[in-house]
Each structure stands twice: as C-alpha cells, then as structure tokens.
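Retry 2 of 3 after timeout on previous attempt. Resubmitting structure tokens to design endpoint.
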C-alpha cells in the first residue's frame, strides 16, 4: 500500500495519470454523451482531440511548476531515466520506441488513402452564364479560345507549358494525371486531365472559368466542393490562362468540345457540343 501511495502521490505519476485519464475521457467517453441525450453518437475529430490534450498538458505543467518543491520532485524520474547508470535499459528502450512511434505517426499521416469520399459531389458543376475576369465581362456560352485564331500556336503552347510547369505541376502532375507532388495532400485529389471524364467532356470556356475562379468560384448549389484550386485570375493574365488551357488539351490528347450554332437562330447555345476524340499516344511530355 505504501508503494501505491508513493506512486500516486508523486507529482510526475499524477501528471501521467491525469493525461491518460483525459485522453480516455475525450476519445472514448465524450462520444457516449450524445446517445444519453437522445442524439446519435459521433467520434471526436483528431484535430479537436489534439487541441484538448494540448490544453490539459499545459494545465498540468502549470500546476506542477507552480511550487518549487513539487517541480523538483516532478523532474526526479526524468533525471534518473536520463542520467542514472541503473536506468540504461530505460534509455535504450526509449531510443528504440520513440523513433518507431514518431516514424509510424509520420507514415500514418502522409500515406495515401483510398477511402471513398464522405460526401458525394458533382464533378462538373453548372457554370454561370457570365463571368468577370480582371474587370472584363465574358459570356461563357459560345466563347472560344481567342488564342486559336491569333498569333503562333507554337508560341502559345510554349507559353502554356511554362505556365503549367510553374504553377500547375505540383498538383496535377508531369503527366497531367492528377498525381503531382502535393496531390496526396488534398481530398479530393486534383483532377486528372488524362481521364476522359474531365476536360474531354468540356468546352475550353468551361475550363477557362474553372482556372480563373478556382475553388472559391464554384457555385453554392451542390456544395461542399472541397476544392483547393487557387483563383488563378489573381496571378495569371487572361491570355496566360487561355494558353495553359491550350497546353493541357494539347498534351492530354483530348479535343475540346465545340459550340454548335442553332439552325433557327444562328446562335451558340450553352450545352450543345460535338463528341471528342480519344487521347494521343504518348501522353504528357
């Protein structure tokens, strides 16, 4: 009994017990509270659990350090584990366990996940009828890429390649397959332009709209979109955005959908488009 009393009365082990008890309470006790109130059970998010434990840890350290004698007793087990000769086995164990624990935590955080998205989302949301880019109003219905009829196509593609590799490659990848260096850090992952379900189904004006307005410019209907796409009109000029649209179509091998004029009115209505062709051999360069 005296050993138990010495153990539970020591400030270091009291702190350990408080931290363990707090973790058990937050991780396993809190989810059982809603059912007691007639609500469905819900786990505590990892980010919230981390914040709670950080608050408890700070509180424990403030308590043990508020008294000089208590603080000296609190440090005794730590000092013994790091200095005493008869505690070499403790140091050896920590030298193996801690790197393995941190390594596993880093792996668990960074490893790719193939879990299905929690929420369904529309891959191609309906675009607005008109947008304003850098103070210039554009009607998307019937809008064609102006660079296709102006200047040198080779120069436009060269410019589009420069812009893509400077801005888009980290997410969309060297092969335009949505597998860039940062891709696994996003959920959902960036769009794969090699997939026949993305730009192969769209007009260039639609892709231009998505590039210009990014995730924040998506319509409110059907949210959440969970898109990390930046608002590129704040960084790129209008011609630069059209050039990168040219480049991703050229390198992915897809032909953009074309607007068709109606026989009756001679206009370019939204939504009418010709089928696209298949991808070129070789993929992105």
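Retry 2 succeeded. Sequence:
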């Amino acid at each position: 009994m005296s050993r138990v009393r010495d153990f539970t009365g020591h400030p270091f082990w009291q702190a350990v017990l408080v931290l363990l008890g707090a973790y058990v309470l937050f991780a396993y006790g809190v989810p059982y509270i809603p059912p007691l109130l007639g609500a469905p059970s819900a786990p505590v998010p990892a980010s919230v659990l981390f914040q709670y434990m950080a608050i408890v840890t700070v509180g424990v350290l403030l308590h043990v350090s508020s008294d000089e004698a208590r603080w000296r007793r609190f440090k005794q087990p730590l000092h013994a584990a790091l200095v005493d000769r008869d505690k070499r086995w403790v140091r050896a164990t920590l030298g193996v366990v801690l790197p393995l624990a941190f390594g596993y935590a880093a792996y668990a955080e960074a490893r790719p996940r193939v879990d299905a998205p929690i929420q369904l989302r529309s891959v191609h949301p309906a675009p607005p009828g008109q947008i304003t880019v850098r103070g210039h109003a554009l009607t998307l219905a019937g809008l064609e890429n102006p660079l296709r009829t102006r200047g040198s196509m080779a120069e436009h593609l060269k410019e589009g390649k420069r812009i893509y590799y400077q801005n888009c490659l980290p997410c969309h990848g060297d092969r335009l397959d949505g597998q860039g260096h940062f891709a696994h850090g996003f959920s959902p992952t960036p769009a794969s332009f090699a997939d026949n379900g993305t730009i192969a189904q769209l007009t260039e004006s639609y892709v231009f709209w998505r590039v210009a307005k990014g995730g924040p410019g998506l319509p409110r209907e059907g949210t959440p979109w969970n898109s990390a796409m930046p608002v590129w009109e704040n960084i790129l000029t209008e011609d630069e955005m059209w050039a990168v649209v040219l480049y991703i179509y050229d390198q992915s091998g897809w032909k953009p959908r074309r607007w068709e004029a109606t026989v009756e009115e001679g206009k370019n209505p939204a939504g009418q488009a010709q089928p696209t062709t298949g991808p070129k051999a070789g993929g992105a360069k």
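Attempt log closed. The chain has nine helices and two strands.
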